[in-house]
Amino acid sequence: MTLDRARWDKGLTYDEFKAAMTRNQERFAENERRVVLDPETVRTFKGLPQPLRVLVLAEDWCGDVIANLPVLGRILKEQPALEARVFLRDQNLDLMERWLNQGKYQSIPVFVFFGQDFKELGHWIERPASVTERRAQERKRIFAAHPEFGSPDAPVDQLPEDVRTRLQAELQKMRDDMVPFANAEVQRELRELVSKVAV
Amino acid sequence: MTGTPVKVKITYCAECGYEPQALDLTKALMYEFGAQLSAIELIPWESGTFDVSVDGSLVHSMKRDGGFPEHAAVNSAVRARLARTPTV
Question: Do A142 and A135 touch, CB atoms closer than 8 A?
Fold first, then answer.
């Protein structure tokens, strides 16, 4: 599969994707509002030596898309020389196959940066590893602090409903508290990516 | 088959968009077993989970077994449970 102008033009702009969302629109908008762009991010993207295209693979039901695509969206607003097209993963599996996570998982979002000639410069998948690691640490901490939650590896359906509900609330709070860190990490990784490739 | 009705719990990752698979399995169980089931509980969860338990016994775990369960395998587990718990 080669990306070319004709295929690129079939993608949705960022705003078109938002308008076409069938669910999670409010969560997406709230996440976008919560993104605080690091001045270093603004400097990096404003200082791009050439305009870039970024292909996005996404779906509106995916938690990582709802969390991380708004970060790119805020960067797009700051940097008109960065042009994005969003492709729905499940309708564009040929594109998905090209950027599988670890060569096998259809993880989204995927951000693929291209030059104007559609030569790939680099890509980013799903979420920063640092966020995954921090979540795992926090998850362990929550289970250690609440013996009633049992083992983190045990099926949650075996917990009494009231306990499971409390665990769910703790996990949601943990994820919410981690949003500033996660947004900063996404920006750091995107800065590093474009700094390496956009020369 | 006239066993005591059994309960099926389906825990699915809502963050991952596994609703269609959870609903497909729910529908298949409803049509296959009807009132032989006491309940089907759907539990929205996270972390790539897709677990199915029958009367508290885990019959499929995405983490343990990989992928989504074959409906036939879940049906077999329900039938086995019904056979073990005859109505008195």
Answer: no
Q: Are B46 and B15 in contact (CB under 8 A)?
A: yes
Tokens of A127: 């979420």
Task: Identify whether the C-beta of residue A170 lies closer than 8 Å to the C-beta of residue A162.
Answer: no
CA distance B44 to B71: 19
pLDDT, tens digit, for every residue of A50-78?
899 999 999 999 999 999 999 999 999 99
pTM, two decimal places? 0.87
ipTM above 0.85, yes or no: no
Give the closest of A63, A155, A156 to B15, CB-based.
A63
Q: For residue A172, what is the nearest residue in chain B, using CA coordinates? A: B46
- A185 to A16, A42, A48: CA distances (angstroms): 26, 14, 20
Q: What is the residue whose two structure tokens read 């960067």?
A: A75
**Are the C-beta atoms of residues B37 and B75 closer than 8 Å to each other?**
no
Sheet architecture: strand order including A120-125: A82-88, A52-58, A110-114, A120-125
- Cα separations in angstroms, A14 against A9, A17, A82, A115: 13, 5, 11, 18
Q: Taking an 8 Å Cβ-Cβ cutoff, which residues of chain B contact chain A? A: 9, 11, 14-17, 19, 41, 43, 45-46, 49, 51, 53, 56, 58, 61
CB B70 within 8 Å of CB B24: no
Calculate the CA dihedral of residues A94, A97, A98, A103 and round it to 10 degrees: -170
Alpha-carbon distance of B1 to B3, in angstroms, equals 6
pLDDT for A78-111, tens place per residue? 988 899 999 999 999 999 999 999 999 999 999 9
